[in-house]
Amino acid sequence: MKVCISSIVLLLISVAVVAQSALEFDQKKAEYLYHFAYECIDQEYPNKPGGVLGDDSFLMPPREIHPAFYGCFDWHSSVHGHWTLVTLLSRFPNFEHRNEIIAKLQKNLTLKNILKEIEYFNDGQNTTFERTYGWAWLLKLDEALREWETPEAKEMQENLSPLVTVISEKFIEFLEKLKYPIRIGEHSNIAFGMSFAYDWAEKYHPQLADEIRKKAMEYYSNDCKCPLTWEPGGFDFLSPCLQEASLMQKIMPQKEFEKWMKKFLPGFERNPAKYIQIAEVTDRSDGKLAHLDGLNFSRAWCLFEMGNGLNNSKMMELGVAHFNYSYEKNGFG
Fold it and tell me: What are the tens digits of pLDDT across the range 273-325?
């Protein structure tokens, strides 16, 4: 249960960062919430490896297979656990637990550990490991380290850089081959992966940014009447419709996006609450059912992004309602 809740909290922190003025995320909340990420990035078990065993030599404890990202139940949760801590320290430079957090981050993000992570991705059995959800979070971590302008961050970013290069190359290679978009509400949703990767690539990797723009237009430019009322699926933590719209807002000129949006989600801007309702969670001890809290947070993320861009207060208000429901139901209010 603790691991499940910690993953949800990492998402809620992410939303609060995006929301900025829409939700108050102050140092008091940061001090309460940081320990979920802090405690899990070196908590090895329980663990869901997610890779392919090539032979008996693959049977090693997680800390040996993934010495940088072995905690937080699975690889991608460990990566965004590191992102959470970096982001908190960047936002609150005088954070009370700064030194302890930095010590943990530096212990994991060594060049030796990162090179070991690369060995796993280069192994013939696991070349697609964490595609593309974990890849996107890895690029987010790199982005956060680059923007946290401290000597410690610079060193950790340089250590991480070889893996970032591997992941960015894999991303381009995969998009070039992916003829049809992946539209589901879980990890492999390609709009989510492309959206996160684009945030990073637009600043640091023009080739990947160009590929994402090209494929997004190829996949989604002719879409219309996305069936929002079909959402959510029972295990969803992403909204296929909202993730797509959020991505297209990033890659299209404003006027073109506004025109596309009216075809893609007709009526949504006028009354978004008519089309989506807050997802209710029946059992938060079940990790899959608890995904729906993640859906509320990720929906809030998209609604804040789109509401900001479209100057739409109704989207922002609906985002706040989604956020508050899962925030309070998980005992954080």
Answer: 999 999 999 998 898 999 999 999 899 989 998 998 999 999 999 998 998 89
Cβ pair 33, 332 in contact under 8 A: yes
Q: Calculate ∠ Cα 297-188-47, nearest 5°.
A: 80
Sign of the C-alpha dihedral computed for residues 293, 294, 298 and 299 taken in this order: negative
Tokens 């890895």 found at: 138
pTM comes to 0.94
Segments making up each domain of the chain, as ranges? 1-177, 182-332
User: pLDDT tens digit string along 77-104?
Assistant: 999 999 989 988 998 999 999 999 999 9
Nearby residues of 120 by Cβ (< 8 Å), 6 or more positions away: 51, 65, 66, 126, 129
The torsion angles phi and psi of 243, rounded to 5 degrees, stand at -65, -40
DSSP result, 157-226: HHHHHHHHHHHHHHHHHHHHH--S----SSTT-HHHHHHHHHHHHHHH-HHHHHHHHHHHHHHHTT--S-
Confidence check: pLDDT of 3 > 70 = no
CA dist 176 and 173 (Å) reads 5
Weakest-pLDDT range from 30-44, 46-60, 87-101, 116-130:
30-44
Quote the distance between the C-alpha of residue 197 and its chain's center. Answer: 10
Residue in this structure with the two tokens 């869901």, named with its chain if needed: 48
Any idea what the Cα angle at residue 109 is, between residues 106 and 114, rounded to 5°?
Answer: 155
Query: Measured on CA atoms in the order 61, 116, 187, 50, is the torsion positive or negative?
Result: negative
Residue 329: per-residue pLDDT: 80
The single residue listed with the structure tokens 């059995």 is: 125
CA distances 67 to 3, 73, 91, 118, 254, Å, are 19, 14, 27, 11, 43
DSSP at 35: H
Using CA atoms, how far apart are residues 238 and 296, in angstroms rounded to an integer?
8
Kindly give, in sequence order, each residue whose CB lies less than 8 Å from that of residue 180, ignoring residues fewer than 6 positions away: 219
